[in-house]
Amino acid sequence: MDKYFAMGSGPARALALKPKKTYERIKYEDDYDHAIIALESNQLPDEKVIGVIAEACHVEPENVIALVAPTASMVGSVQVSGRVVETAIFKLNELGYDTTKILSGTGSAPIAPVVKDDLKAMGSTNDSVIYYGSVFLTIKGFEEDKFKQVPSSTSKDYGKPFYKTFKDAGYDFFKIDANVFAPAEITVNDLETGKTYHTGHLNGEVILESYGISGI
What we know:
Elements: E1 7-9, H1 12-16, H2 20-26, E2 35-40, H3 47-57, E3 64-69, H4 74-81, H5 84-94, E4 102-108, H6 118-132, E5 134-139, H7 144-147, H8 162-168, E6 185-190, E7 195-200, H9 204-211
Parallel strand pairs: 2-3, 5-6
Antiparallel strand pairs: 1-2, 4-5, 6-7
């Protein structure tokens, strides 16, 4: 399966240290003889793909467990919305904030309705976070210049359903502003000052357009 493609997430990434710079910043790595990875794909990986994952994670192929689900499925919708807190923390890390100062995080995002087309499903699932994802962090050390850049609305690609943005980019992820992959709003409680800050906003209009919701 030389052309196999899937979006990978889960604890296996900590074994493979990918993306490397992220793990270097947070000074974290795993050491375990099993690797578990979630693959967003409509095809099962073959032995060659499992071998590549095993090599990257420094485990034996028989110790790789892959959970596979297409984007256009209930599992696909749930797993993207379930990463809403991760998107906020990852963006803060990219902005240079010391994410080890984050003590706890909670969040919510609507679960996108399932559609038949994987590309359109990728759009609506991402929109769940981009336009209606809400994150609350408890931290020690607020940095206004970094936190105000977290919401997806700071991106030049914000304002229309992600599928349209992806299509306009020629279906090339690298042509899309990475700043759009973030929650719609973030609230932080700084334990050092006892103050709480909020930035960003929910956008129901784009969500309804993305989901293709119509009256009955």
